[in-house]
Every structure is written in structure tokens, then in C-alpha cells.
Write a structure and sequence with these properties.
By secondary structure, the protein is mainly α. It has helices at about 5-15, 20-25, 35-45, 50-55, 60-70, 75-85, 90-100, 110-120, 125-135. The relative contact order is 0.11.
């Protein structure tokens, strides 16, 4: 089956007379991975320890382990910090934000543009945080 984009799915949804039929016919299209599953998937690709990740992400190891165990639901800012710590791609970051119910990064928003630039150019988290502060934008931590 061809993969449908969000626009196509929305158009299909508008055409269906029965919500149950739509849900049944399109069940393979719905996001099914949890934030923790996606986070673990990204982490497993990297050659780092959780201790190193905690330092890179500017968070405590205890908090980090609670996130990985599904006991904590991190904020959007904390997820972005984790992505910096993981040296995640922009695509991985967007997927993690999306599946956690957070807004994805949007380059028309100045703050998000700074964050995106940092991810794309492997700028260290503390430098991006300093740039956010210098531009009078909310910092990540």
C-alpha cells in the first residue's frame, strides 16, 4: 500500500460517512510508537551511555532514567535537549516531538529556527541556549 501524507489522510477522513469505517480502513496509518520507544530507538543507534547523554542534555541521570522508563513525561524543551544530547537528526527530533504530543519545530518561529539550525549544524546545546538568551527567546533549560 502507498504511504499517504497527512493531507491525503485528512481528505479521506472528510469523505467517509462513518468514522468507524475510516478508523478500520486506515488503522495502519496511525502513529503507534510511544515516545519512549522512539527515544530508545534513537538512543540504540548512538554509541553513548545514558550517563553521557544526561550530561550532554543538561539533565540529571535520575530524571533521564525516569524518562526512559516511562515514569516521566518530559516537556518539549527537555525533549529537544535530549535530541541535542543524542545528536539526533532533525527528522528524528520532529518524530519524537510529534509522537509525544508536542509541537514540532517550525522554522517560521524565530526560536524554533535557532533550534533547528543548531540541530542541523551540530551546535552544542549550551551555545544554542546562549543564542536563545541573546535573542531574548525562551531558553531550553
Amino acid at each position: 500500500m502507498l504511504k499517504k501524507d497527512t493531507h491525503d489522510i485528512q481528505n479521506d477522513l472528510m469523505k467517509y460517512e462513518s468514522l468507524n469505517s475510516f478508523l478500520s480502513d486506515n488503522k495502519e496509518l496511525f502513529v503507534s510508537e510511544t515516545m519512549v520507544e522512539i527515544l530508545n530507538s534513537i538512543f540504540e543507534k548512538k554509541d553513548i551511555t545514558k550517563s553521557v547523554l544526561a550530561k550532554r542534555a543538561e539533565m540529571s541521570e535520575i530524571y533521564l532514567h525516569q524518562i526512559f522508563a516511562g515514569k516521566r513525561n518530559p516537556s518539549r524543551n527537555r525533549l529537544i535537549c535530549l535530541c541535542y544530547g543524542l545528536e539526533a537528526t532533525l527528522e528524528e527530533t520532529q518524530e519524537l516531538l510529534k509522537c509525544s504530543g508536542c509541537a514540532q519545530l517550525y522554522p517560521k518561529i524565530k526560536r524554533d529556527a535557532i533550534i533547528i539550525y543548531g540541530l542541523l549544524h551540530s551546535v552544542p546545546l549550551f551555545e544554542i541556549n546562549d543564542k536563545l538568551f541573546a535573542e531574548n527567546e525562551e531558553t531550553l533549560y
